[in-house]
Amino acid sequence: MNSTRLPGISKRLGYLFHSIRFRLVLWFAAILAIVLAAFSIFVYINQSRDIRSEAEYRLERKLAAFDETLTLTANGIYLPQGVLQDTDILILVSNNGQVIASRGPIPNDDADTLARQAVGEFQDHHDSSDGFVSWSQRDGLSNSNYIFVTVPIVGFSRQTGLAILGSPLDPSGLFGRLRFTLLAGTLLTLTIALVGGFWLADRAMRPVHTITQAARSIGETDLSRRLNMKGKDELGELANTFDAMLARLQAAFERQRQFVADASHELRTPLTIVNLETSRVLASRRPVDDYQQALQIIHSENDFMTGLVNDLLTLARMDAGQTAMEKFPVDLSDVAVETVERLAPLSDRRGVILEAGNLPEVHIFGDRKYLIQMMSNLVENAIKYTTGPEKRVCIETGSSDGSAWVSVSDTGPGISPEHLPHLFDRFYRVDKSRTHLTDEESAHNEATGSGLGLSIVQWIVHSHDGEINVESTLGVGTKFEVRFKSA
Questions:
Q1: pLDDT confidence of residue 141
Q2: Which domain, by its residues, includes 144?
Q3: Cα–Cα distance between 365 and 464 in angstroms, integer?
Q4: Per-residue pLDDT, 39
Q5: Got the DSSP string for 437-451?
Q6: Low-confidence ranges of the chain (pLDDT < 70)
Q7: How does pLDDT run across 434-454, given as a tens digit for each residue?
Q8: What is the DSSP string of 128-191?
Q9: 476: closest CA among 389, 410, 432, 394?
Q10: Pick from 356, 52, 19, 425: which is nearest to 206 by CA?
Q11: Does the pTM of the predicted model rise above 0.85?
Q12: What is the CA radius of gyration of the chain?
């Protein structure tokens, strides 16, 4: 029983000793102990000074009565009743250090020793004390602290000896009670501070425990939980930050799941077409034209899947930060001209007029390769979806307000306002308003896209600290404008 409980107790104690709560309480108690010790020493020193001053004052008053009441007899010193207490010590010493008479609870041997000490103290300090020297020592008989004063005895205008008067420094035991009070008060305060500190630390760290438990219970499949702590302190701010992080993680996982689902959906269609075509032509012997048509369809679907996979790899590298850009001064007009030359065959095949408008020199800092990809995606997207009796796509560059811009406009069917906020979402396509394909185009899949081109464009624009805007009018056309900081 005990052997099974010891590991658990040891584990809990180890957790306690390594917890922030324990360290906070320990530091608090240590600082409080130092403060209390300093305060107790200060109080003790000041009280000791006051008690000593009071004892010296009592001795001065007793000395004032000696001139009229002190009498030497054959039996020693005679003083009227009430001048000295039973615990007081009075010693008369000659100039040569011999004890003339003594009174009080002190043996003769101790009186001789005390006399020699008093003569030494008086000779060392009487020049600076107006003939009044006070000092203290522990009395061997009563084992208590005594304070002594030494004054000269003057007769016939000269010093004839010394009078040593001693009295207990603390006859009421104030020192002992003070030490006990300070020690007990310090220990009691520290005990209360430790208990209260643990309670306060536990209460203060309770939100951290809540956050820890929530973090342990939240998994990839359950990111909808939130702490919802209403506190406005640092821990409340931490909990709110934790909730915001969970929201971002949930959104990221949802995007990932949606991304995988969309990619699977996009790949399933061409794979199904390829499977159906191969099954059809392999079912029986067919004319050569059927085989050629099937191969053309398979080739077209393969091109689509190749483009989709390449776009997915590009976005994956971009999201993982594995795409390194080398930015140098680039003329956007040169990039626009090169893009028009690259995509001229595509526009001719689609019967679209691809023209370059006003192309003044405008320079930005950027990666030429990615800027060409950005413009190519925009122009290719415009070519695919341009309709009307006069299909036209125009690319222009310019500068204004300290920024350089490039725009791509088309004469397509336009985009409805409800679709504009989602244009740059991955796999998002506005098929109803942007796709008007002939049967031949549908067969060869020329005007369909993966829905990733504009997502890549947006990533390239943001990587260059730029912004992209879309303006579209139904039945008139669409215009994409990208703005960068001028070099």
A1: 41
A2: 71-171
A3: 8
A4: 93
A5: --HHHHHHT-S---S
A6: 1-18, 65-83, 108-109, 125-144, 154-160, 219-221, 320, 322, 431-450
A7: 433 333 443 444 445 667 888
A8: GTTT-EEEEEE-TTT-SEEEEEEEEEEETTEEEEEEEEEEES-TT-HHHHHHHHHHHHHHHHHH
A9: 410
A10: 19
A11: no
A12: 51
DSSP label of 464 = T
Q: Pairing mode, if any, of strands 363-366 and 392-400?
A: unpaired
Of the candidates 300, 251, 308, the one whose C-alpha atom is nearest the C-alpha of residue 452 is: 308
Asked if 131 and 150 count as a contact pair (C-beta separation under 8 A), the reply is: no
Mind listing the pLDDT tens digit for each residue in 365-407? 999 999 998 999 999 989 988 877 788 999 999 998 889 999 9
Q: Based on the fold, state whether residues 58 and 124 are members of the same structural domain.
A: no
C-alpha to C-alpha distances, 466 to 38, 363, 483, nearest whole angstrom: 64, 13, 5
CATH of the domain at 99: 3.30.450.20
Give the whole-angstrom CA distance, residue 175 versus residue 145.
Answer: 10
- The HSE-up count of residue 347 (CA atoms within 13 Å, CB side) is 24
Three-class SS state of 465 = coil
What pLDDT was estimated at residue 395?
95
pLDDT recorded at residue 261: 76
423 in a domain, yes or no?
yes
Of the candidates 401, 420, 409, which has an alpha carbon nearest to the alpha carbon of residue 484? 401
- Residue 358 tokens read as 């006003």
Rounded Cα–Cα distance for residues 454 and 381 (Å): 8
Write the CA distances from 71 to 79, 108, 152, 324, integer angstroms. 7, 20, 16, 111
| Domain harbouring 448, CATH code | 3.30.565.10
Contact indicator for 348, 385 with CB cutoff of 8 Å? no
Q: Are residues 183 and 38 in the same domain?
A: yes
